[in-house]
Amino acid sequence: MARTPDTITTLQHADGHTSELRIFDAATASPKGLFLILPGIAVGARYYDPIAEAFAAAGYTAASTELPGQGTSTIGVGRKAIPTGYHDAAAKDFPLAVDTLRAHTAGPELPLYMLGHSQGGQLAAYYAAREAIVQTPGRGLSGVIGVATQSPFHRGYAPHVGRRLRAGSVVLPIGAGLFGAVPASFFGGEGLQPGRRMLDWSQLARTGRMNPLGADVDYLEGMKKVRTPALAITLPGDELAPQSAARYWLDFFPNAPRTMRHIDADLGHNRWARTPEPILGAVLDWISKVPAA
User: Fold this and answer.
1) Can you name the residues that pair with 21 across neighbouring β-strands?
2) Are 50 and 23 in contact (CB under 8 A)?
């Protein structure tokens, strides 16, 4: 069991909602860098405490933040809730978490790595694309890591799974439009997911192309500008993020150094975050070998 985070900060989002940022300070006097962990669908930030603690023990200050509408996020889900999708997370919520993490460490020059789980990896790619265009000081990334992540593009899956995703990409938008939310049970989770985020997911599952609702930049052009190294880590038996779908995720980064690692550990789609040693070792080894962004 992981210890309690060194700091739990309440993020005050511009639209009025709040969420937690759970920070584990580096065990070393001078941190080697920063990690921001983005959850998967229907998973709260606290679930990632063990892997955040492992990065901290290795000398990195690590934090997990919420996806809007999950965990401690108060944004709400439904027709009357504030709309939140892929662009909103990349343009508003994650920059706030990055700024807060940097202010906590007082390390404006420390390398920043964004580690996304499942849908969190997709959102990390969107963040990287937008920052490649806007280039806000202090918000650039030194690496993007996707663990059990993927593009949901239906062609990246075995035929029977791809057909289900293709069907979902047609049916889920109906629920999103009528109710402003869709059941997370479609993805094996609990509760509801924000409608706009599911509309963005559906578009990505149908076409494999980044075109989120409300975008203020061309995300496809942004991805072409990204030079940040990207690492995809896959696990055996993970039907939600097989190697074929992870390769499509890496294709989001056409002009960046890309690495695929398959870890032969029976940790499923989620359990790696609670048994972090195999992932920790793979990520630290990759950092030691990739060029700085």
Assistant:
1) 9, 65
2) no
Please report whether residue 182 resides in a domain. Answer: no
Q: For the chain, give the mean pLDDT.
A: 96
CATH code at 56?
3.40.50.1820
Say what the pTM is.
Answer: 0.97
Q: Cα Rg for the chain, rounded, in angstroms?
A: 17
Determine the distance from the C-alpha atom of residue 251 to the mean position of all C-alpha atoms in its chain, rounded to a whole number: 16
Q: Hey, what are 100's tokens?
A: 């807060």
- Summarize pLDDT for 152-203 with one digit per residue, the tens: 999 999 999 999 999 999 999 999 999 999 999 999 899 999 999 999 999 9
Q: Two tokens at 24?
A: 């584990």
Domain assignment of residue 30, given as a range: 7-152+212-289
The verdict on residue 173 lying in a domain is: no
76 in a domain, yes or no? yes
Please state the φ and ψ torsions of residue 289, each to the nearest 5 degrees. -110, -25
- Check residue 69 and give left, alpha or beta (phi > 0: left; psi -120 to 50: alpha): left
Distance between alpha carbon 282 and the CA centroid of its chain, in Å? Answer: 18
Q: What is the pLDDT of residue 204?
A: 98
Domain count, the chain: 1
